Amino acid sequence: MFFPVFLFGFSNYGIILPVDGTTSDSLERTVAGTSGFMMSADGNSQDLKLSGFSVVIVANSNNPTVLNQDFLYHNGIVPGDWTLHENLPPVITPAVSQVTFKNGFKVMAELNRILFEQFAAPLKEEDVICADIAKRYLRTIPHVPYTAIGINLHGYRIHQNQESGTIPDLLIKEGGWMSFRNAAPSFQVKAAYRYDDKTVTLDIAEDLVKEEEVSEVPAMVFNANIHRDISDETNQQMRVSKLLSILDSCNKDISDFYSLAKEFKSDGS
Hints:
Blueprint: E1 5-11, H1 27-31, E2 49-59, H2 69-74, E3 91-92, E4 96-100, E5 106-110, E6 113-119, H3 130-140, E7 146-158, H4 167-171, E8 186-195, E9 198-209, E10 217-229, H5 236-248, H6 250-263
Antiparallel strand pairs: 1-8, 2-6, 2-7, 3-4, 4-5, 5-6, 7-10, 8-9, 9-10
C-alpha cells in the first residue's frame, strides 16, 4: 500500500504551476467564460471544472525538425480544416518546433519530448482530443525510442463559502502564522501517489478565477501529472503499443483526476 507524499509551501496569487515541463498561461485566460465540464454524483454545479489537458511523450534522440504544419496535415494527424493561429506562426528549428492552431491546440517537439496541449473554455470531456492526436502522431513516427508518457490535467473549483474550503481548512492546523503584518498567506500543496504503473503528482493552490461576466472569486486550482515510465520495455513495437494503450484509456486518468480532487474538499467548500 502506498501513502501520498505531501509537500507544503507558500505561493503567490495568480500563478498556475507548470506540470511535467508544460507551460500554463494565466488562470484568467484558461478559464475565462468557462461553465466547465463537471463530474459530480450529486449534480453540484460548483464541483471541479476542467480547464486544460495535455500529453507529453518523452523520447530519446527526437528530431524536432520533422514537425511542421504540412507534416501534420499530410499524415492526417490533425484535421485538414484546422487553420493556423494568426498571431503564433509555426516555429521550426533543430532544437524545438511548434505549431499552434486557431482553436488553441498546440503541438511542440523538442529533442527529448513531444507535447500535445489544449486549453479551452469550456473544456468538456468529449472535447478532449489530445490523446487522439498523439496516437496519430505515434502511428506516423513509431521508430523514435520513446521512454515515458505524462498525462497532464488542469482544473479548478470555486469556493461556495469564501470563509471555508481553503487549503488550511483541509490540511493544516491554524496558528499565529496564519496572518503576518495583517496579510494572510496563500498556499500551495504537492501530493504524490504511486500505484499500479503510474505516479500521480497533484499540485493544489489557491487562486482567484474569473468566469464570464462574473467578478473574480476565490478558488482552489488543481494541476495533475500522471506519469508512466516504459523505458524497461526493450522492444520498440511493444513500447509504441503500450503508449497507444495508455492513450486509449486516458478517460480513466480523467476520472482519477476528478476523484482525487474531490477528496480535497471540506464540507464547507
